[in-house]
């Protein structure tokens, strides 16, 4: 298949459109041309190898747009890597026929203090020696040529992650399988002003949405909420050194996290206003104040 066709299958624009400020932000999630990808984390670099393919597999990448590269595997499959500005990555395997391989091995190199395991939702967690969440891979996912879901799962085998994809009827190919690796829970953290005082603002990243809905933590939804309250808040603290100057700001943040659990109207944007008063009992009536108490 042509690079244009592969780009269409994996949902990226073949035409270069990246802005210079985005280009810098992809550097800690490298779509490399040496058949390895690297995610830089606070605990060190996590490196995954692209599945090996056959001896005829291409050794160098073909670019498809600004954030993506592809490798012809020489076995009726194509491997692609897309690096996003939020430092998440997608590593697609495009299966072109029923006779092509349907099992893909990603060899993993981890920092000394980091371990990986399969979680209850079928994704992969990377944690440090204190069991702090470092990064993760969303539960296995695949779809056929019509967009229908195809059964897929991960196994951790030694230092490798193996993805298995079910076979489908011949007219349902190509099938696209999509490991999604991420670390940042929030994007676009910025400071503004409301009622004469600071506001702290940000949006849940695509990876953060996976974690919040249970795909990024052992124990599912509840653990995902815990990760957002802990690791997510640390991202805000790093961006805003004075964010803990008033209890109300943290209370509003935790209210937004809880809102998803309660089924309240949810948007990906958080606006935390320091001018709002402290409210130690905010959790009693979130359905009334929607995290915007007076």
Write structural notes for this entry.
This protein is an alpha+beta fold. It folds into 2 domains: 3-182, no CATH class; 186-289, no CATH class. It contains 6 helices and 19 strands. It has helices spanning 3-10, 20-25, 206-212, 221-239, 247-262, 286-289, and strands at 29-31, 36-41, 44-49, 62-63, 68-72, 77-83, 89-95, 103-109, 115-118, 124-127, 133-137, 142-143, 152-157, 160-165, 175-177, 180-182, 186-194, 197-204, 269-273. The strands form 3 sheets. Strands 4, 5, 6, 7, 9, 10, 11, 12, 15 and 16 form a 10-stranded antiparallel beta sheet that branches. Strands 1-2-3-8-14-13 form a 6-stranded antiparallel beta sheet, with no helix packed on it. A 3-stranded antiparallel beta sheet has the order 17-18-19. A hairpin with a 5-residue loop joins strand 6 and strand 7. Helix 3 crosses helix 4 (221-239) and helix 4 (221-239) packs antiparallel against helix 5 (247-262). The radius of gyration is 21 Å and the shape is elongated. It starts with a helix and ends in a 5-residue tail after the last helix. 37% of the residues are buried. Residues 16-33 have low confidence and may be disordered. InterPro entries: DUF2599. Residues 16-33 have a biased composition (Basic and acidic residues). Residues 12-33 are annotated as: Disordered.
